[in-house]
């Protein structure tokens, strides 16, 4: 007998959180195979030079988890044809992004988004130039003074994880809420999410994973905010 599968992406504004934030025992006791996913966060997950080869590493981590589920969940008693992807906060944003990305097509049959949306203005960076500038800004803060962008990138990668994380909390932010977020790159995020959703019914845009979707708000969400 195979059981339905729930793949869950945690929240935390793409800056914090882990798969351990959401214990799965309750759902697992109801005949569901539950998979909670860790993915790269902050600069390590979303640093970008505004092109199609850098950035969105956190979304790629999530997609790799979905591909693993597709290929191997049957060994854990799960049905690869009955996968629901769900998330809270940034995890909900991630779900919406995967529905719009052609790279994630056919990896799940249904979706649920809790207290988050891919169309929220602070959930992604819409201008590649801004993502580029934020990465260069991080490099300068870390002492990477090279004139060529990819040299700055490689220099950043020589710095310690602690230094990179500390820098992202110290650098002033001009736009959005955070320096590093998912960035429109043409593939992982093919375009402006709101434009895609508004134009899909007219045929001007496509939603590769137009699966049944449950959207809601968690009770008492935001009560820990001072």
Automatic annotation (TrEMBL):
<comment type="similarity">
    <text>Belongs to the type-B carboxylesterase/lipase family.</text>
</comment>
<dbReference type="Pfam" id="PF00135">
    <property type="entry name" value="COesterase"/>
</dbReference>
<dbReference type="InterPro" id="IPR002018">
    <property type="entry name" value="CarbesteraseB"/>
</dbReference>
<protein>
    <recommendedName>
        <fullName>Carboxylesterase type B domain-containing protein</fullName>
    </recommendedName>
</protein>
<feature type="domain" description="Carboxylesterase type B">
    <location>
        <begin position="3"/>
        <end position="223"/>
    </location>
</feature>
<dbReference type="InterPro" id="IPR051093">
    <property type="entry name" value="Neuroligin/BSAL"/>
</dbReference>
<dbReference type="InterPro" id="IPR029058">
    <property type="entry name" value="AB_hydrolase_fold"/>
</dbReference>
């Amino acid at each position: 007998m195979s059981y339905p599968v729930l793949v869950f992406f945690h929240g935390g504004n793409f800056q914090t959180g882990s798969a351990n934030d959401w214990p799965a025992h309750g759902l697992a006791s109801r005949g569901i195979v539950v998979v909670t996913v860790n993915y790269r966060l902050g600069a390590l997950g979303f640093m970008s030079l505004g092109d199609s080869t850098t950035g969105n590493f956190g979304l790629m981590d999530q997609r790799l988890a979905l591909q693993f589920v597709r290929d191997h969940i049957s060994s854990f008693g799960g049905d690869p044809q009955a996968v629901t992807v769900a998330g809270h906060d940034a995890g909900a944003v991630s779900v919406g992004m995967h529905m719009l990305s052609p790279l994630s097509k056919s990896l799940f049959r249904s979706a649920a988004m809790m207290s988050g949306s891919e169309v929220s203005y602070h959930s992604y960076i819409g201008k590649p130039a801004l993502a580029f500038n934020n990465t260069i800004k991080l490099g300068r803060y870390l002492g990477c003074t090279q004139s060529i962008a990819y040299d700055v990138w490689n220099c950043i990668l020589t710095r310690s994880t602690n230094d990179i994380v500390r820098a992202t909390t110290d650098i002033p932010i001009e736009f959005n809420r955070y320096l590093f977020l998912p960035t429109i790159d043409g593939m992982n995020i093919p375009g402006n999410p709101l434009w895609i959703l508004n134009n899909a019914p007219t045929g001007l845009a496509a939603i590769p994973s137009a699966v049944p979707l449950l959207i809601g708000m968690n009770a008492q969400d935001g009560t820990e905010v001072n």
